[in-house]
Every structure is written in structure tokens, then in C-alpha cells.
Write a structure and sequence with these properties.
Length: 268
Amino acid sequence: MKPTSCHTAWCVLVAVFGLWVTPAALAEEGGAVTDGGLQSLSGLGIPALVYQASETGGEYSVTIQILAIMTVLSVLPALLIMMTSFTRIIVVMAILRQAIGLQQTPSNQILLGLSLFLTLFIMMPVFRIINVDALQPYLNEEITSVQAVERAVVPIHEFMLGQTRENDLDLFVRISGREDIQTPQDTPLHILIPAFITSELKTAFQIGFLIFIPFLIIDLVVASILMAMGMMMLSPVIISLPFKIMLFVLIDGWALIMGTLANSFGTI
């Protein structure tokens, strides 16, 4: 296992342990409980990773909050891919480059940057809801960190559920063996996320198939003409590539692709 993976796994392990430690268990090991619910280890003088009860529902200590934030930052790329529109966009862009016949143009960096900013554009309504309902109340100390996370999950859950096919959702619900899920809205994230990714891949390949057809027709026409002329030693790709680029430019292909991807997600 790579060092980065070890570090991430260790952070997750410590975070999970901190979330499940109870005041009683720490008290048995010599910890002390204060009136506010914050514990400190005897002899060490450092606060324990505990849950502090309060009238508004309680929250975790600052130590566990910082640990959770650092853990989330380490898995942020995976969250971006799994829970946003990034997967569909990057797959369609890769298929488009393959259909045109350009292996390295646009480069991977350009495709990733384009997909990232298009993802931000598409996900902005969701991020705006999270900012209003979860982030700002938390920064104003109106809600606890636990309540902020619960509120932030709601719009993301709605977005993923709106893009997930029912048959994909039913598949993972059936595999999980859960019988207490009565409606799609009751689906937990650990079941919804793989169903959402599966639906995104299906949709991306459907869009990619439609993109591939006109470029494939050009390849077939050029290959047929070269064979009729007896020029079988000449690669059809060399002849068809400028025609495909010209076709893509004349129909304003980039605007069509961007508009199609943005409209395919609808509105939240």
C-alpha cells in the first residue's frame, strides 16, 4: 500500500474510532467528564475525541472536526467523481476525442480542466443550496457541524437520485438485501452512489454513441473511396481526419457538446 493510502486509511480509522468512543468508556480508562460534556485524558491534558451533548443536538469536539475535515480533503477527488456530473462529462469528452481521431489533442489536462469547470457550472444550483442551508448557518453558529452535514447531504442526494435510473437503483437495493427501503428517497448514500455512477456511465456511452456516428460515416466513405481508387496502402485516417475536424468546426461542435451535456442534467 502506498504511503498516501496508508495515511488516508489511518485517518479514517482514527475518525471512526473517535466517533464511537463514549464518555463511559473513556471514564473507565481514566478520563474526566466536564459539565459541558468535553473529556480530557488524565495525565495528558489533551481533549478526547468525544461527542458533546447540547440543547441544539450536540456536536463533536474541535479535535474530531479537524480530523474529519482533513480526511474529507484526502478523498475529495473521489467525492467529486462519484457524486457530481464529472463522470458523464469526462467520459463523453474522451469518446469525442477518440471519434475525431485525435489521440492527444485536446490534451488530458485540457479535458480535465474543461470537465471540472463544466461540472462546477452544472452543480452550482446544488452548491448554492448547500451554502444557504448548511454552510452559512454553520459559520454563523446557528447549527452544529452534525446538522450542517445532514443538511448538505440533502441536495446532493436529490441531485443523484434525479439522475439515477430506477432499474439501477433497484439492482443495488436488491444486492444490499435491504427490505426497509420503501421509496427512492429513503435510499442511503452507500447504495445510491454506485447506482448513480452506473447510470452516469450508461448515459455517457449513449451520448458518445450518437457523437461517434457522423465521424464513423466519414471514415467509411473515405475508406470506400480509397479502395475504389486502388489506394489500399494509404491509411484512411490520414485522409478523413481533416474532414472530421472541418465538420466538427462547421457545425460548432464544442457548443453543441457543451449544451447537450448541460441540458442532459436538467435543473434541480
